[in-house]
Amino acid sequence: MKYSDYFKDLSAGSKKQTEIVINGYTDTLPATLIRGRENGKSILITTGMHSGEYPGIPATLTAAERIDPEKVSGRIMMIHCLNPSGFRERTDNYVPEDGKNMNRIFPSDNTGTPADRIVSFVSKELLPETDFVLDLHSGGQSERLTDHLYFPAEGQAAEESLKTASFLNFPYLTASYSRGGEVGYAGNILGIPGLLLERGHSGYCLPEWTENMTEDILTVLTALGVLPGTLRQNQSHTVFRKAVYAESDTEGLWYPYIQENENVRRGQILGEVRNFRNEILQTVSAEGDGIVLYFTPGLSVRPGWPLVAYGLSEKLTE
Ligand SMILES: [Zn+2]
Hints:
2 domains; 9-stranded mixed beta sheet; 5-stranded antiparallel beta sheet
């Protein structure tokens, strides 16, 4: 079923809770549909894709309760958990049936494993009829993180995404060149503006993170004219046009020497991967001056696992 099909039997100025069924996937996706009194933009809000990133889930439930459909212009689909089996199994960021990270495999296809089918549903049935996509994330179970967001950096979606982001209370706005993630695929491939928000970390679900994310949802909807009201642009953010995502080259013991939201200088040693003989296998140094957005506090790492990500405050010399 396509995005608009879900709203066919919903009268103007009403909302309903539903369970989305995906062909070939045994779980259903809990969702809220809101159809405004007036026409306007069609919005998709998703969370729980990474099943150990919690604050977005109650944030969407609270926002769905608070929104009065009589005051809405347009349509809102909120999917409260994109990875229900992962949520149940407490996996960090993958679908337990196939081990796939959904935010790496967009647009995928509807004949594959459960992760492929969920992603294909979003990319083929929902996104093409969507005017804006908001996807809520956090640091993972083994990740510390400072509040930041990602906006698609390429094409026509970049400007509107960044404009919408400027109304939100985030200190760091980071350009994303991703093509295999939900917001990256929507923005950088389909030209649909959107934002990926990151608040909270470490597998916790603290009330202030959830409350801030609820406000984020309502602010984005107001900025897009879906909810009434006026907003002031937040002038205090830093835009990172480039970020570095350092990964482990090897299996080992990771010792970070930084914290989230810390300033780093070019050449500064950010951490080391060692073996059980305490020999250094990998040294991670800052490629430029910047701010640590998130990092793995330790200890066990494997090849390709994230170690530290930092936004660059200066242009790298090529
Ligand atoms: Zn995530």
